[in-house]
């Protein structure tokens, strides 16, 4: 196998526009797969890593982790994948064979570390070099803002080729995370009530998961009033804008909307400890469950009233919505093909690779849910 020269959007410095450059992508080593990226999309996690100046920030690097591609070549010992397979890469490993992967609960692989890394998971080295022969680092074990990338088999999932690329790539992270949190972590059911704090793609994916499970009331909490209209496509029934509640606490408003009871399930999808606490307060006594999906963006500790735990309320965090990628993503893909799972309405914009910085602008301005980035310039 040969080195491949191709185009990549390289992050050279924290918070600065990405640079379209020619890079070299090395052949896959043992247990690895090289894939041709057809399209990718921009997630808020990419923005987080793009902005990082301190560890685990490292530059230059290739961002991106939501993608759809085709297997170009496989490394030594790889039997699960072959050339031509349609796949989506995922940031969270699923080896499928360790004690943790075989367990019914949880989705953190015991064989592969889930902590952020700058290289491949098995040896820590990079498969990218720039035009000057200097290393370019990986992000979240995927690095999909490149026409070709190398991914470990534990971070790769086969998907039905009937799923259009721009929708299949959503299953790499955001939509799967939200739907999984509703189904596998919270276990929402028919007739239950829900409040979702933050109506980005993940929050709306939570709503979609709740809609599919027959939840009776889905309350969205967001500062952007436009999110209510878009949220209705995913089952949102009610909306709370914290700027328009006359200084009252959000939990007071939500309790008022539920007859003083509070909701059965709360989901925090932003990453602010203050909202995590507010979500917990908004859940009902005697079984209310709060699920934390957002990484606290300032490192602020979470503070809750421990006495409320004695009344049967609980709080739990999750990565990737509790999904085991190799088994659960194909199920979601089939639900899309069966016209049950709504993926189309998450894609609000499309750009070519050369215009990738527009995708950042749209997301930061709150104008897009997911922007599809086509790698070969053809939409």
Automatic annotation (TrEMBL):
<dbReference type="GO" id="GO:0005829">
    <property type="term" value="C:cytosol"/>
</dbReference>
<dbReference type="InterPro" id="IPR011032">
    <property type="entry name" value="GroES-like_sf"/>
</dbReference>
<dbReference type="InterPro" id="IPR013149">
    <property type="entry name" value="ADH-like_C"/>
</dbReference>
<dbReference type="GO" id="GO:0004022">
    <property type="term" value="F:alcohol dehydrogenase (NAD+) activity"/>
</dbReference>
<comment type="similarity">
    <text>Belongs to the zinc-containing alcohol dehydrogenase family. Class-III subfamily.</text>
</comment>
<dbReference type="Pfam" id="PF00107">
    <property type="entry name" value="ADH_zinc_N"/>
</dbReference>
<dbReference type="InterPro" id="IPR036291">
    <property type="entry name" value="NAD(P)-bd_dom_sf"/>
</dbReference>
<dbReference type="InterPro" id="IPR002328">
    <property type="entry name" value="ADH_Zn_CS"/>
</dbReference>
<feature type="domain" description="Enoyl reductase (ER)">
    <location>
        <begin position="15"/>
        <end position="369"/>
    </location>
</feature>
<dbReference type="InterPro" id="IPR013154">
    <property type="entry name" value="ADH-like_N"/>
</dbReference>
<keyword id="KW-0479">Metal-binding</keyword>
<keyword id="KW-0560">Oxidoreductase</keyword>
<dbReference type="GO" id="GO:0008270">
    <property type="term" value="F:zinc ion binding"/>
</dbReference>
<dbReference type="Pfam" id="PF08240">
    <property type="entry name" value="ADH_N"/>
</dbReference>
<keyword id="KW-0520">NAD</keyword>
<protein>
    <recommendedName>
        <fullName>Enoyl reductase (ER) domain-containing protein</fullName>
    </recommendedName>
</protein>
<comment type="subunit">
    <text>Homodimer.</text>
</comment>
<dbReference type="GO" id="GO:0051903">
    <property type="term" value="F:S-(hydroxymethyl)glutathione dehydrogenase [NAD(P)+] activity"/>
</dbReference>
<dbReference type="InterPro" id="IPR020843">
    <property type="entry name" value="ER"/>
</dbReference>
<dbReference type="GO" id="GO:0046294">
    <property type="term" value="P:formaldehyde catabolic process"/>
</dbReference>
<keyword id="KW-0862">Zinc</keyword>
């Amino acid at each position: 196998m040969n080195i491949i020269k191709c185009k990549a959007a390289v992050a050279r410095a924290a918070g600065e526009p990405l640079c379209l450059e020619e890079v070299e992508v090395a052949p896959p080593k043992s247990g690895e797969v090289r894939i041709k990226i057809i399209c990718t999309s921009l997630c808020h996690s990419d923005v987080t890593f793009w902005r990082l100046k301190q560890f685990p920030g490292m530059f230059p690097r290739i961002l991106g982790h939501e993608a759809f591609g085709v297997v170009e070549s496989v490394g030594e010992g790889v039997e699960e994948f072959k050339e031509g397979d349609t796949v989506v890469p995922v940031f969270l490993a699923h080896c499928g064979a360790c004690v943790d992967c075989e367990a019914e609960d949880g989705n953190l692989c015991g064989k592969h570390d889930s902590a952020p890394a700058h290289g491949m998971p098995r040896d820590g080295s990079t498969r990218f070099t720039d035009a000057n022969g200097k290393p370019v680092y990986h992000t979240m074990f995927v690095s999909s803002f490149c026409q070709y990338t190398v991914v470990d088999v534990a971070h790769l999932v086969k998907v039905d080729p009937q799923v259009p690329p721009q929708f299949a790539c959503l299953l790499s992270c955001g939509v799967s995370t939200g739907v999984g949190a509703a189904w596998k972590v919270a276990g929402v059911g028919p007739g239950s009530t829900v409040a979702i704090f933050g109506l980005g793609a993940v929050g709306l994916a939570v709503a979609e998961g709740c809609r599919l499970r027959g939840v009776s009331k889905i309350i969205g909490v967001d500062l952007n009033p436009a999110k209510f209209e878009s949220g209705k496509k995913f089952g949102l029934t009610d909306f709370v804008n914290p700027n328009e509640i006359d200084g009252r606490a959000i939990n007071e408003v939500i309790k008022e909307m539920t007859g003083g009871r509070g909701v059965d399930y709360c989901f925090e999808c932003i990453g602010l400890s203050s909202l995590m606490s507010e979500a917990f307060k908004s859940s009902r006594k005697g079984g209310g469950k709060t699920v934390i999906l957002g990484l606290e963006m300032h490192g602020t500790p979470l503070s809750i009233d421990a006495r409320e735990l004695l009344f049967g309320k609980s709080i739990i965090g999750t990565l990737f919505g509790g999904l085991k990628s190799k088994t659960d993503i194909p199920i979601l893909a089939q639900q899309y093909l069966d016209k049950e799972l709504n993926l189309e309405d998450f894609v609000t914009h499309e750009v070519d690779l050369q215009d990738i910085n527009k995708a950042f602008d749209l997301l930061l301005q709150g104008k897009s849910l997911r922007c599809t980035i086509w790698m070969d310039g053809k939409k």
